[in-house]
Amino acid sequence: MTTNNAPAPTTTGERRLKIDLHTHILPERWPDLKRKYGYGEWVQLDHSDPTLVPGKEADMMQGGKFFRRVQCNCWSPEARIAECDATTVDVQVLSTVPVMFAYWAKPEDTLDLARYLNDHIAQCVAEDPKRFVGLGTIPLQAPDLAVAEMKRCVQELGLRGIQIGSHIGEWNLDAPELDAVWRAAEELGVAIFVHPWNDAWETPARQKPYWGAWLVGMPCETTQAICSVTMGGVLDRFPKLKMCFAHGGGSFLATLGRIDHGFNVRPDLCATRVKHPPSHYLDRIYIDSLVHDLDTLKFVINKIGHDHIMLGSDYPFPLGEHHPGKMVEESDLPDETKDAILWKTASEFLGLDPKDFM
C-alpha cells in the first residue's frame, strides 16, 4: 500500500498512473436465466438482431424487452485495453452492470448468478493482472449468503472489493439485516463501492422522460444511501468500514447544508440513531470523480478533500467520462490533488501496490 508522502509513480515519462475505479463489464454470453430459473425479468445479451454489427454490438434485453445496445467494449478485454491505451488508463477496476444485481430474485438464484459473474471478473483479472482489478457482486437480500460469497470473492478469487446497490428492495443500507455484511466487510478489510440503481419496474413513470431515472434519480439514490449509512449509524457501528459512492456522491455534497440543517432542527426525525449530523462523517466516506464539470469537482474537493476522491469514469457507457481523467490532468489543480484522484487514493482504498501496475 502506498503512503501519503510517496512520490507519484510514472508509466511513460512523467505521466501519472491512472486507476479507474468505476468501470463495468459483462461476459459475452451467459445461460438463458429465465429458462434456467423458471421465472423473472432477467437480463440477457442478444447477439442475433440483424441490425447489429456482428461481434461488435449486442442488445441488452430485460425480460425480453430492449434495455440498451452495447458495444464489444462491454465484454471484450482486448477492446477495453485498446481504449485504455488510447486514453492512457493504466488500470480498470471491473464490476458488473448494476442491472445484474438481481436483489429481487430468489436468493439462491442471485447467488448462482453472482458466482458466475464473479468468476468471469476473476478470470479477466487473472489473464491481465497489470491492467485489471476486480470487484464482486453478492446476494444482499440474503445476508448469510452474501457474506459467504464476499469471503469467496476475496479469499479464493482475489477480488479487491464488492460493488453493491444503493438499496436492496425496501431495505436502505442501514437495515439491521445488513449489519452482518458490514461486519464481515470490516473484518476482511473489504472495500465497498456503492452504485445507485433501480430495476425498471421500480422507476416512477414521471422519471422516464428526459432520461430522468439516470440524470435525476441516480443522484438522489446515492444521496439516500449516504444519509442511510450516516444517520442510520452504520459508520458508527463499523468504524473501519470503507465505502465509496459513485457519481461524485450524487447530490449529497451539494445538499449537505440542507441535510445537516434538517438533522439539527428535526432531531426527532433525523437524530434517532446517531448523535452527529452527516457532515461529521465526511472523513469516513469516499466518492468517485464522475461529476463532468471542473467547478463541481473543485466544489466536492473543498467539501470532502482530495484524498477521499478517486477517478471513476463509468466506462463503457455514454453517461461516463469518455476520456477518463482528462479533466483532472488538464486542470489547474495542484499536483498533490491530481496524484490523489488519479491513483493514490484508489491504491489505498483497494489495498494495491502501485508498483504492481508499472
Total strands: 11
Taken as a percent bin, the fraction of beta residues is 5-15%
Order of strands in the sheet with most strands: 1-5-6-7-8-9-10-11
Task: Please mark out the parts with pLDDT under 50 across 5 or more consecutive residues, or reply none.
Answer: 1-8
What level of helicity do the residues show?
25-40%
What integer value in Å does the Rg equal?
Answer: 20 Å
The end-to-end distance, rounded to whole angstroms, is 14 Å
**Sheet bearing the most strands, described?**
8 strands, parallel
Question: What is the global morphology?
Answer: globular
- Count every helix, treating DSSP H or I runs of 4 or more residues as helices: 13
Average residue pLDDT? 95
Please write the string of helix (H) and strand (E) elements: EHEEEHEHEHEHEHHEHHHEHEHH
Instruction: Determine the structural class based on helices, strands and strand pairing.
Output: alpha/beta
Quick summary of this structure?
The chain has 358 residues and is an alpha/beta fold.
3D structure, described in words:
With about 350 residues, this protein is of the alpha/beta class. Helices cover about 35% and strands about 15% of the residues. The protein has 13 helices and eleven strands. The chain is globular.
What keyword list fits this structure?
single chain, 358 residues, alpha/beta, eight-stranded parallel beta sheet, three-stranded antiparallel beta sheet, 13 helices, globular, disordered N terminus
